[in-house]
Every structure is written in structure tokens, then in C-alpha cells.
Automatic annotation (TrEMBL):
HTH hxlR-type domain segment(s): 27-123
Key words of the record: DNA-binding, Transcription, Transcription regulation
Name of the protein in question: Helix-turn-helix transcriptional regulator
Superkingdom per UniProt: Bacteria
Pfam (any one): HxlR
InterPro entries in UniProt: HTH_HxlR, WH-like_DNA-bd_sf, WH_DNA-bd_sf
Location of region: Disordered: 124-150
């Protein structure tokens, strides 16, 4: 065993580097990616980054326009995860980012920017055309962190 490596026993009794802690970190990452991978999550979070909005404002802002049912389900999912909150107002409720949502959004935007750089460097040029033909939206990335070199 190497110095500093934590080992545990597998079913057969042999030692192996402990992947339990690493697997927990992966699971945390996968959970976050799964949440962000849901349809309309990024569009809602980026739409709410400037100011609170009513349901109808979100519905009119997001392009391509989601169905009312899809937008409602996405907002409920984000509320359940405490990334978006809803206040009751006179003209209907306003949706806004919670402190957790405000903290998450810059991380997501930076991550997406890095993925875009990676894709521009390594992605097959034909893949880019296929993505737009499939009707998938292009998210405008706005980051609170300055541009970094390649």
C-alpha cells in the first residue's frame, strides 16, 4: 500500500484503495448534474438572475418557450431543492433565486463556459451542427468570473 492511501476490504477480503469517500463525492456531483440536467433548469435560473419574475414573465422570457405544465413542474422541482423561492404578491407570486440558487448559478455558468471551451477544442465540428438541428437551445453564458485563458 502507498503512503496516505486508505484501504478497505472487498467481498473477497483483499485490500483495495478506499473508493467510498470518492464515490460519495461522485454521487454528490451526479446529483447536482442530474438536477441541472433537467429541462428548463438553466433557463429558469439564468432568467431569474437579474430580478424576480412572475410565472407569465418567465413563460414569455424563456426561448424556446416551454409548455405551461413543463415550466410549472420545473419551478416546483427547483423550489423543492430550495434554489428558487416564491413570494405571494398582489398580482400573483414572484419567483426568485434563493441564496442557494444565487450561489449555484455562477458555479454552473463557469462550468458551462469551461465545457464550451473543451467542446470547441475537442468536439467534432459536425456535432455542433447536429445539436442546433435537433432544436436544442443555446444558453447564453454570463459569468461573474473574468475570462480565463485556454
Amino acid at each position: 500500500m502507498g503512503r496516505g492511501v486508505v484501504c478497505s476490504r472487498n467481498r473477497r477480503g483483499s485490500s483495495r484503495p478506499d473508493g467510498g469517500r470518492l464515490m460519495h463525492e461522485f454521487n454528490t456531483f451526479y446529483t447536482a448534474v442530474k438536477l441541472c440536467g433537467h429541462r428548463w433548469t438553466l433557463e429558469i435560473l439564468t432568467s431569474l438572475q437579474q430580478h424576480p419574475m412572475r410565472f407569465t414573465d418567465l413563460f414569455q422570457t424563456i426561448r424556446p418557450t416551454p409548455s405551461a405544465k413543463s415550466l410549472n413542474e420545473a419551478l416546483h422541482r427547483l423550489q423543492d431543492r430550495e434554489l428558487v423561492g416564491r413570494t405571494n404578491g398582489g398580482e400573483g407570486g414572484l419567483y426568485q433565486l434563493t441564496p442557494a440558487g444565487r450561489q449555484l448559478l455562477p458555479l454552473l455558468l463557469d462550468f458551462l463556459q469551461e465545457l464550451r471551451r473543451w467542446a470547441e477544442r475537442y468536439q467534432d465540428p459536425g456535432d455542433q451542427a447536429g445539436r442546433h438541428q435537433a432544436g436544442q437551445p443555446e444558453v447564453t453564458l454570463r459569468s461573474s468570473v473574468g475570462e480565463r485563458g485556454p
